[in-house]
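Async update (no meeting this week)

Hi team, since we skipped the sync, here's where things stand on the single-chain job. The sequence we agreed to prioritize is pasted below, unchanged from the tracker. I ran it this morning and attached the output directly underneath so nobody has to dig for it. Comments welcome in thread, and please keep replies under the output.
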Amino acid sequence: MSRRARILVLFILLLAVSVTVLVNRLQVSSDISMFLPQGANWPQRVLVEELRKGANGRLILIGLKGGQDSQRLAVSRQLTNVLRQSDQFVYVNNGSGSLPKQERELLYRYRYLLSQ
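Output:
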């Protein structure tokens, strides 16, 4: 084997090892709170923790594009119904300003605790 071929094989082997190490150690995160400061005081730390592990960390927003307004409206309503029937979502809202009765009662029951 010529010197040039050995260098090429060594380079390819080194590249393969590097890619293997990179794939095994790479950690991909969609946690946007890692771009926030750690928080100097207690309220800031609570805010960052809520962004990491609170309800906002599990919020999914969906936007529909294309077609006519009436088509998007129909698809939006169908999607809302399918997601509500699914057991994978706790709460599905399609832009209405009102909460379901159960949620309103829960907020009313704990309104004084929430206002503190």
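Quick observations from my side:
Residues 18 and 91 are 44 Å apart (CA to CA).
The chain has two domains: 1-58, 60-116.
Reply here if anything looks off.
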